[in-house]
Amino acid sequence: MNLVNFRFETGADGxxxxxxxxxxxxxxxxxxxxxxxxxxxxxxxxxxxxxKGCVIASGKSAFSGGADLSLLQKSAAxxxxxVRDQGEEAAKKLFFESARRLxxxxxxxxxxxxxxxxAIKGVCLGGAFELALACHYRVLADSEKTRVxxxxxxxxxxxxxxxxxxxxxxxQTGDALQxxxxxxxxxxAKAKAAGLVHELAPEGEIVERARAFVANGGxxxxxxxxxxxxxPSGRVYSPGGMMVWPAANAIYRRETFDNYPAAKAILHSVxxxxxxxxxxxxxxxxxxxxxxxxxxxxxxxxxxxFLSKNELxxxxxxxxxxPATSIRKVGVLGAGFMGAGVAxxxxxxxxxxxxxxxxxESADKGKAVADKSISGQVSRGxxxxxxxxxxxxxxxxxxxxxxxxxxxxxxxxxxEDRAVKAEVTKKAQAVVGPDVIFASNTSTLPITSLAETxxxxxxxxxxxxxxxxxxxxxxxxxxxxxxxxxxxxxALDFVRLLKKTPIVVNDSRxxxxxxxxxxxxxxxxxxxxxxxxxxxxxxxxxxxxxxVGPLSLNDEIxxxxxxxxxxxxxxxxxDAAVDPTQERVxxxxxxxxxxxxxxNGKGFYDYPAIGKKSLWPGLEALADARLDPDDIDxxxxxxxxxxxxxxxxxxxxxxxxxxxPREADVGSILGFGFAPFxxxxxxxxxxxxxxxxxxxxxxxxxxxGDRFAAPRELREMAAKGETFYGRYGETAKAA
Length: 735
Hints:
Helices cover 51% and strands 12% of the residues. It is α/β, with parallel strands linked by helices and 735 residues long. The chain folds into three domains: 6-294, 2-enoyl-CoA Hydratase, Chain A, domain 1 (Alpha-Beta Complex); 329-507, 3-Layer(aba) Sandwich (Rossmann fold); 514-734, N-(1-d-carboxylethyl)-l-norvaline Dehydrogenase, domain 2 (Orthogonal Bundle). α17 links the parallel β15 (409-412) and β16 (437-440).
C-alpha cells in the first residue's frame, strides 16, 4: 500500500503494525487523507488471510490530539454552499453523511472480523480516543505524560464518532456523562479503573503487549456486539436508570443554563442510544453531531477556543523582524501574591528566578507561596518530590538587587502605585542597565506613563498577568507609545515559555480585559441600587454565561482595589470618567463598612471561618427601591451583562487598543470568562448582528444611560451589514 501518514508492516507472527506518523506535523491529527488511508488499511487487514490482526501505534511522542478542527469549521461553509447550489434538503443529506464518515469508518474497523489493538503513549484525545475505543484491545503507557479523554465539549462539540455510545457501554451511566460533560483528560490509572483501557504497561512495552493480544488469538469483537450484552447501569427505563436521568438533567440545567447545545446533545445521544441496537445508536449520535456541527455556538467556540487561540499562541502578532530571544533568568520585583505567582510559573517553565522584595522576610513569604503551589501539585500526584526540590532551587528569594545581574528580563509586580513602581524600576535598572527588557505587571496604569521612569522607555513593555497567575491562561502584552519590537517579541516569547495565551494590546487605562470586566462588575453594582435582589444578580449573571456573578468577582479581586482604581481614574481624568452610582456603592462598602472582599472575610459576601460564604444582608441599604423579583425581566438582565461588556470591547477595537477580533474574543473568554458559547465579545455582536445589537444598545441607552451607547463605527457596520470578522479579520491576520 502507498501510505503517506502511516507505515504498515506485517511481522512473521502474522500481526500487522500500523504506525501513525504524519510527515511535517509535530502531532498526528485526523484529516480526510488519514481517514482514506485508514479505510484502505482496514480492507487490507480484513481481506488478507495471512494477517491475524493489527496493532495501531504512533511514531511520534504522543498518539494524537484528535481531529483537525479546521476541517469541521470548513464543513459549515461547505454546507452553506450546498444549500445555495442544491437546496436545503439535499445539503442536509450530504452534510449528515459527511458528519458520520468517521463514525462509519470506526465501526468498519470494529466489525471487520479481525482484532485491532492500540498502543497509546502521550496524549490520545477526541477523535483519536474514539479510534482507540473502537479497537478491541487498548494498552496505555503508564507514564505521567499519558492522557486520554474526550474534550470536545470545550470547543462546543461532543464526541460524534461513536464516543458517546462506547463510553456509555463501558462505564456506569453517571460516570460516562461526567466524563463527556467535563471533557476531562484521564491519567492511565484512572482510565484503567474506569474500564476504558485494558492494560497499563511501561512505554517501551506497549506495542509488544498489544501485539501479544492479537498474536494469542484475541477476539475481534466488541462487547456490545456479543449476544446478551447489557450496559453497566442496566436499562434506561429501570429503577437504576431513573436514579440517573432526572439527576443528570438537573445537573445539566444547573451547570449550563441551557447555553450549550452540545451538552444537551450528549444527554440526548446517551439517553436515546442506550435504548437502541448499537448501529442505530450510532446513527442517532451522528444526527445529533451533524446538528451541533451546524450550530452557531460550535462555530464560534471552534474559531475562538481552538483556531484563534492556537494562532495567537504561535505568535500571530509577534514582530517578524525580531529573531527568537533567549530567556534563561528572570528578575521578579515584588514577592506579593502576583509576584509570587509570576515567580512560580517562571520556575515551573525551567527559568531561573530572582524574587526581590523590600526585606528578606517578605521575599521568603513569596517563595513560600511557590512552595505551597508545588506542594499541592505533589499531593495530587501531578509532580514528584524531586520536581518540587528542583523548582524551589530555581527561585532565589532575596532583598539584594545586585542578584539581578545577568537577568534577561525584569518583571515588576509590586503594588499598584506609581511611586512604588518608579522606585523599584530605578533600583533594578541601576543593576541591570537600560538594555534589559523591563516589563510591568500592571492591571490598569498606562504603560507609557510608567515607562517615563525607565532609563530606556523603548525597552519598557507591559505584561499583565491575571489572578491567580498559575491558573489563568491569558496574558496581556501591552505596547506603550515608545515600546519597540524587541520588547514586544521578548514579552511574547516569555509568555510562550510559560505556556500561556498572549494578546497584544495598545496602551490605555485598563487596557482591554479590565475595561470590559469592570463594566460587568459596575453593572452588578448598579443593579443593586435599582433594587434587584443580590442573589438574583449573581444567578442571572451565571445564566448569561459568566463563570461567577459580579459581586462574587469583585470580592475576589478586592473591593478596596476597585475603590483605589476608581479614585485614581477620577483623579487623573475627572468626575465625568467615573460612575457616581458605583462610587456610592464602593464608598459605602470600603470606607463606611470596612468591607474589602474575601481578603478580609467580608465584602458583598460574608466569609465565615467554617462553612460557605453567604450574601451580606446589609446590601439592602444600597437599594433605592424594593423590586418584586417576579416583575423583573430576567432576559433583560442577562442581556445587560453581556451587552455592556461587548460594547466596551467594540470601543477598544475602534480606538485601536486591540487590533484583531481574535484577540478580543480569546482575551474575553480566557481573561474574564465572557460567555464562552458566544465565542467572545465581538463574536457575540456578530452573532446577534450589528444592526440588532445597535438597536439593543439604543434601547438600553434610553433606559439606563450612556454606558450602553453604540459607537459611531458600529453604526456604520450596522448600516452596511458588516461583521467584525468580515471587516477586520483578514486585515488583522495580514498584519
